[in-house]
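Hi,

I'm pasting everything inline rather than attaching a file, because the server keeps stripping attachments. The sequence lines come first, and each chain or strand is labelled.
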Amino acid sequence: MASVLTTTVQYQTINNYGAWVKAWQDHRQSGYESILLTGDQESLMAWLLNRDNGDILALHHRVELSTKLGPPPSHFGIEETLMSEHWLARDWSELGWEISDPSSARGKGLFIYPLGPVRADVSESLLYQLIVMGDEIVHVRLKNGFKHRHVREIVRGRTVQEAMPVVSVFTMTSTVHHSLAMALAVENAWGIDIPLAVNVTRTLMAELERTMSHLGDLAALAVSTGLPVPQMQYLHLKEQVLRVNYGLFGHRYMKGAIIPGGVTTALWSEDPRLSEAQGVIEQVLHQSTRIAHDLEHTTSFLDRLHGAGVVPKSTLETVRPVGPVGRATGLEIDVRLIRPYGAYHDLKPKTYTLASADSYARFRIRTQELRQSLTLVLELLTRWDPSLVPRITQHQERVDFLPKQPWGIGLVEAPRGLLAYGVRLNQDTGRIAHLSVATPSQRNWMAYAPAMANGNILQDFPIIDASFSLSVAGLDG
Amino acid sequence: MYYWQWLKNVVRIPHTTGYPSEPDAVVENMLYQDNIRFDPGVNPAPGFAPRSVAIRQVDGGSCNGCESELGLLSGPDYDLTRYGFSFAPSPKHADILVVTGVITQAMIPVIKGVFSQMTQPKRVLALGSCAIDGWVFKDAPGVVGRLDGIVPVTVDVAGCPPTPGDILRGLMAAVESHSVPSQEVHP
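And the predicted assembly:
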């Protein structure tokens, strides 16, 4: 049986802060991807992922508060962990890291166009400050924190089982991936193996979720260019997928279906009608391909997308966006290939990349990924046998182990990109001592502002916004 | 830029896809599962025009699940305009305030502000278990955990997230409600 835990975590302790940042920078230049920045019990830890073999390197620095720490990593051009840095600076004032207010632009004729936190028809709370010169967007400041729910703080001290309901509502449209990343992290710390049937089930859920999420994002993108027909078509398909989810796993978003050690079989319907689900997914695949084809031939749509919201080269180097946004800039990071989990060892999904980094590229990547995901779902449905999945819900209390190693790390490719969970468990009680989460939205929001301000006008705003389709819940946490 | 495609489109046959053209059993079940038949046109509450209600949604700290389901209400499967509802971008045009999420301290002034800008008559819907009692975030720092007490709530819609059918039923119940909760609001 293929094991999820074949890759190793290598720890490296560096006592000098300057040398620690330098080592981080050097690894980042030579094939490593920063995934997490954690601060815990007098130590800072930067988690890096090797893009070639999926190995994880944890750069550890013991913080001596008697000596002054240097400036934060973003000062050295490492901006993908900026949100973690802000939280550390706020919660751990002894570090002496300063949170600078997002930079502004001043000048004659500049006008701040405030948008939010209440905006559009249905939206999440975030304040955009668009600094405009006439129609042109010169600079964008994002003010977040309206919906900070403190997920990381409230799970501290809880058992893993108690923490799962909180983690699963981090972002509802990625609930499967959040639960899965948490489960992988905990299983990593426990040092247990997962049966193949469970892995196949988890992968099926993950791909169904990607399908649902991409359909919703494409609907939003279609209507942002004033095309309600494809929006309605995509929304109808999204509803179809949600009903398949409900039919198979008892919840429209499959919340609570994944738990550490396995999957909750209690939610499942006694007789999941697989052939029916397969028929629906085939229809969704057929129709979504046709809608995408039609959009590719709609000039008014293409005109608005091409060249809008190009992520600048300098931002690619400092932020390194992930997921469809990253792949639309030519950065090929797909955890499913680099560090396969679930059933991706033998599924081998294809990754699409484009180099133009504009809204069209993001649209195109999403449509391709949608087709790929639907194909994977069909492939998995033929293989999936719910009766083979071990029923462990009745004995859930048994699925609580003492950790074999203090830290566990879970990496998944969520619909919006690389999602990392780092969890430290108490060695004696097995309770959660520290949880650290890096969501794709946290990272991609950092690329959002420069892309928005890069020679676009106000009329481009809704389109670029929809083409990124980031979650604010994932940013605030 | 795409003139050649304009030419191509002249000879192209347009596609239409399979919208639900007949009443959908799933939606019907969701709407009428406890045998309550809502008919907002028959006896509307004073001041409400039958079947013309604008909704303003405010996110008070949600996981975006409720937003996802609200977004599907405008889709062809539920089509909230059939029941006389629409989304309004401005609070000043809105009749129903729909609040999702755990209600963070930071959002209280925003929610109050939006509610005060809505014109009478107005109703408030607490959408999702988070807005009713904080759900799993009851004890989180900076989280109030309940909408009631900040603005007068007419209807609670429980669920994580509530299904679009539940939301529609809640909206209809809010419009039908003749008993307006007391305007007394705790500071």
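Residues 231 and 367 of chain A are 14 Å apart (CA to CA).

If the labels don't parse on your end, tell me and I'll reformat.
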